[in-house]
Design brief:
Blueprint lengths: L2 H27 L18 E2 L6 E2 L8 E5 L16 E6 L5 E7 L6 E2 L7 H10 L2 E4 L4 H8 L5 E3 H4 L4 E3 L9 E4 H11 L12 E2 L10 E2 L2 E5 L7 E7 L4 E6 L2 E2 L10 E2 L1 E6 L2 E3 L6 E3 L5 E7 L2 E10 L2 E6 L2 E2 L1 E2 L4 E6 L8 E5 L1
Parallel strand pairs: 3-7, 4-26, 7-8, 11-25, 18-26
Antiparallel strand pairs: 1-2, 3-5, 4-5, 6-10, 9-10, 12-22, 13-14, 13-27, 14-15, 15-16, 15-17, 18-21, 19-20, 21-22, 22-23, 23-24
Helix pairs in contact: 2-3
Length: about 350
């Protein structure tokens, strides 16, 4: 190959190498595409207040409340399921004996009882709230109301040994119980609606709110008579902001799990009581409204109550009083400071 041909070839090779270098340089110098990772959007959880406790829940409660007559004879204690009741109303039955109307909505326990007999004012309260009512037995006036089906219900008189089961641990009439499975069957048997239809107009403090306006009340005693078996004592625990109940020095616990009943509010409502027969049965005025006392947040305050669309509603200056979110015990008494019933409290 001639010299000038070799030079041309060398120049051509150098040119190719230069072009290759530039091409490589251009490729590596191009900025890489920046990948931006999108952060997932924060989804704020929705909360729904429980109608009877004001506690914030992640799911809306649409099930129908259950109202059960629970035996409160000393031989019936401790009762089953009461630690899960949203509300417990304590009424006089006959004489000095009281009974509970336990309302279950946020949770239906595995077992409730001992179940006891109905009174007409129990049935009327159940009717006003449009709940599903459970009892075992009835007074004559209560039977008339139940026979007229003014409220959806099942009664142990018709379902003893089937829906209502007898516990061998106790003697009748202190041994009738109903399970959550049998409650579900009761809805089917009676073809009753399982959806809540009426909502209470209760009002509750927000989590960041507190109510300290009132008399300091760390210890509360509610007496239905001089019989110590029906005198309730409540002690306030500032750390938990809850009240714990005892009778005769014995803590009120749930037989199912020995859990103490924890209460956010204690309400005492004064209602007219009138004896209607020789058995000592009563007529109780659920409709006229009247005086009441509220204990919560470690304080006591005088309030009123009204029957608002079937619900016994605590009021302050004509508006639903703000309760502490949580469970409530309501005492129905003939008088707030009478010869037989009384309410006292101390700091």
């Amino acid at each position: 190959m001639k010299w000038n041909e070799r030079m041309l070839l060398l120049i051509a090779l150098l040119g190719l190498l230069y072009l290759a270098g530039c091409s490589s340089k251009n490729i590596t110098s191009e900025p890489k595409e920046q990948v931006i990772k999108e952060e997932p959007e924060e989804i704020s959880a929705s909360y729904y207040p429980a109608p009877f406790t004001g506690e914030q829940l992640t799911e809306k409660l649409e099930n129908r409340p259950i109202l059960a007559t629970v035996n409160n004879h000393p031989l019936a204690r401790p009762q089953s399921g009461i630690a899960d009741a949203d509300l417990i109303y304590e009424f006089l039955a006959e004489g000095e004996v009281t009974r509970y109307l336990a309302l279950f909505h946020s949770k239906i326990p595995d077992q409730i009882g001992p179940i006891r007999s109905a009174r007409d004012y129990f049935v009327k309260l159940a009717e006003g709230m449009d709940v599903f009512y459970l009892a075992h037995g009835y007074s004559p006036d209560a039977k008339k109301l139940l026979d007229n089906r003014i409220v959806d219900h099942v009664n142990g008189m018709q379902y003893d040994g089937s829906l209502f089961e007898r516990s061998p641990e106790r003697k009748a009439p202190h041994n009738s119980y109903i399970s959550s499975d049998h409650i579900a069957q009761a809805f089917e048997i009676t073809n009753a609606s399982e959806k809540i239809s009426k909502m209470p107009v209760f009002s509750f403090l927000n989590p960041e709110e507190s109510d300290k306006i009132g008399d300091i009340a760390s210890s509360i005693i509610v007496s239905y008579s001089k019989n110590s078996n029906f005198i309730s004592t409540y002690q306030y625990d500032e750390q938990t902001n809850r009240y714990y109940r005892s009778v005769n020095g014995i803590d009120t616990v749930d037989k199912l799990n020995e859990r103490r009943v924890e209460l956010a509010n204690i309400i005492v409502m004064e209602m007219d009581h009138r004896m209607v027969d020789q058995e000592g049965r009563l007529a109780i005025d659920l409709h006229s409204g009247g005086k009441a006392l509220l204990f919560h947040e470690g304080i006591a305050k005088t309030i009123e109550w009204e029957n608002m669309d079937g619900f016994l509603t605590p009021l302050e200056q004509g508006l639903p009083v703000k309760l502490t979110a949580g469970k409530t015990w309501v005492h129905i008494v003939p008088s707030l400071s009478g010869p037989t019933t009384s309410v006292t409290y101390t700091p």
